[in-house]
Amino acid sequence: MRNARNYYEEGRLQLLPQLLNECIDNGFSKEEKIEALRLVTLSHLFSEEESRAEKSFLKLLRLDPEYKVNKEADPTELILLSERFDTAPKFFWGINGGAAYNLVQVMDYQTINIDLKPGTYEFTTSLGGGLFFQYPINDKFSANIEAHYVFRQTILDREGTEGAAQSEQQSVTERHTWVEFPLLINYKLPVNNFLLEATAGPSFHYLQDATFSLEGRGENINNKDILDNRNVFNMSALAGARANFKVFGPNYFTVALLFQYRLFDEVSQSTGPAFTNDEQNTLLLSGYKDGNYKGHALWLKVGFRFPYFNPKLK
Q1: Most buried among 30, 136, 192, 303, using CB within 10 Å?
Q2: Prediction pTM value
């Protein structure tokens, strides 16, 4: 590279391709290849070999898609050549995961025991993670297609009414496993230090597994399959913000805060009971009957976003 730099400073640009091409293919590090391809491109521009200049500059961009010419120092010919190439990412892909604070909205209580209050839901979290694909629509808007696996637990605590025995308490736990498919539209917000996006859209849910446990008053029930008594398909609306921080190369670390509003009730009104006659009797003696609810959530997610480049002439 030292000889190539000397030739360039001496104005002997026509000698650069012969000197550098073999080393570009075999010997140089990535940084040296980028510098060498820049010099070869300048040589072809000096010789008015536009086609060869385009080919060598394209090889440079494939090594470093985010390469930027120095508009203060680089020759005008190189600057004009760089403007003829489309170097924007064609799409992004990545992984993300996180935790959610569950916000259970009770639609109607179905209590049948006057010694127990309707109850309140404990603070519980969901855990989820998956993959996403992001397609740029224009400079401001992009679209996300995502697929997540989500584990959710809710706990309903029912205390005894005033004057009831201390044993008149009950804890009802449900554990769900969902597959979710968010479809989001993102809008870039004007922040200079990092990439900030507002994001919103629908999410489609498929319930894979649902279990029910009851402890306290009456006979306990442990991990009963209640999938038949829950709506397998559901839908929610998502809205929030996502911050993207460049961490290594062209890749980003992402942090998102999202509110998820469940649109439909979760307890099925059309399918038959998941409980046997004996189990239904146990529930009646325990003073419990399925109500109806929606499981909203406040999500905090982190992940990594990777771009896919395919530089080419415009």
Answers
A1: 303
A2: 0.84
